[in-house]
Amino acid sequence: MKYLILSDIHGSLPALEKALDFYHSQQCDMLCILGDILNYGPRNGLPEGLNPKAIAERLNAMADDIVAIRGNCDSEVDQMLLNFPIMQDYMLLVDNGKRILLTHGHIYNKVNMPKGHFDYMFYGHTHLWELVPQGPTLVCNTGSITFPKGGNPPTLATYEDGKVNIYTLDGELIAG
After folding, report:
1. Where do the H-state alpha helices sit in the chain?
2. Which of 67, 90, 122, 176 could form a disulfide linkage to 103, CB 3.0–4.6 angstroms apart?
3. If you compute the radius of gyration of the chain from its CA atoms, what whole number of angstroms results?
4. Percent of the chain with pLDDT over 70
């Protein structure tokens, strides 16, 4: 399977639309959303094209192809709008025997990893992309598709057959 993994949409419909165009052009099988889907958060400015209702409609149309976890800006009210679960703090996927941990990053991250063995750990939250080995685990922060920090462009990641790549939202490969 090919996974598109992204975080921190923060209610921006134009950013989500670009990410979904990438999802389809790359022929991904599953969209993994690492939280902060609809709400932009009080510390961020208003995102371009803020439209949580349209985001919910767009994602609900493909709910069978989505797994998601809760970010620090997600709430029970957000869950009421979405037709796929978002309220867990982390999720474990197993793909061809590889253990893939998905989380937002505000609870678990490269500094505070949960107990257990994971071949890959994906998170967001800091809005800074990163791809680094940490012991036996390859750690990937996907960055943010809406509010990237550190002078970075908006970013997302793919996972397929043990290979992780980081791309700009415009589809340029920047790490992997």
Report:
1. 13-25, 52-60, 76-81
2. 90
3. 15
4. 100
Residue 58's domain spans which residues?
Answer: 2-175
CATH number at residue 93: 3.60.21.10
Number of domains present in the structure of the chain:
1
Cβ atoms 15, 48 nearer than 8 A: yes
What burial class does residue 102 get, using C-beta atoms within 10 Å of its C-beta: 0-12 exposed, 13-18 middle, 19+ buried? Answer: buried
Has this prediction a pTM greater than 0.85? yes
Q: What is the 3-state secondary structure (H, E, C) of the chain?
A: CEEEEECCCCCEHHHHHHHHHHHHHCCCCEEEECCCCCCCCCCCCCCCCECHHHHHHHHHCCHHHEEECCCCCCCHHHHHHCCCCCCCCEEEEEECCEEEEEECCCCCCCCCCCCCCCCEEEECCCCCCEEEEECCEEEEECCCCCCCCCCCCCEEEEEECCEEEEEECCCCEEEC
* Distance from C-alpha of 117 to C-alpha of 6, rounded to nearest angstrom: 22
User: SS3 of 59, please?
Assistant: helix
